TrEMBL record:
Source taxon at top rank: Archaea
Protein name as it appears in the record: TrmB family transcriptional regulator
Organism annotation: Natrinema versiforme JCM 10478
Residue span(s) of domain Transcription regulator TrmB N-terminal: 25-81
InterPro entries: ArsR-like_HTH, Tscrpt_reg_TrmB_N, WH-like_DNA-bd_sf, WH_DNA-bd_sf
Pfam families: TrmB (PF01978)
């Protein structure tokens, strides 16, 4: 069974030069395939689920779940487009890479501050 992203911090810290994708998965708590979906969407703005499923060679339900997670993390936006013949379709656009990098920095800074607080507040009972 693969480790969940939030449990991969130790593995990530052991890497002297971790891949951006691994950092992104770990910090945002997303799966590798969700990170891949984000990166593919960066190159294909305003894609539909069907278009992404074809590009990723994954089924639509998996892509839909990935997009839902990415939207929850603020990495993807969804817009509805009306079709000329009636009906509508959702199109997805990734947050820009600079936006994602800023979000990564903010999340890491917040986590680091929390860890520093834990260290500073630890009382081992020695006077």
């Amino acid at each position: 069974m693969a480790e969940t992203p939030q449990h991969r911090l130790g593995e990530l810290m052991e890497e002297s030069n971790p891949a951006f994708e691994d950092v992104m998965s770990c910090v945002f708590g997303i799966e590798d395939h969700e990170t891949r979906t984000y990166l593919v969407l960066c190159d294909r703005p305003r894609s539909t689920i069907a278009e992404l499923a074809a590009a990723l060679e994954r089924d639509r339900s998996t892509v839909n779940r990935s997009l839902s997670t990415l939207r929850d993390r603020g990495l993807v936006r969804r817009n509805r487009r009306l079709l000329e013949g009636g009906g509508d379709v959702y199109q997805y656009t990734a947050a820009s890479l600079p936006e994602a990098k800023e979000m990564l920095h903010e999340a890491l800074d917040a986590w680091t501050a929390t860890v520093h607080d834990v260290i500073d507040e630890f009382d081992d009972g020695v006077d």
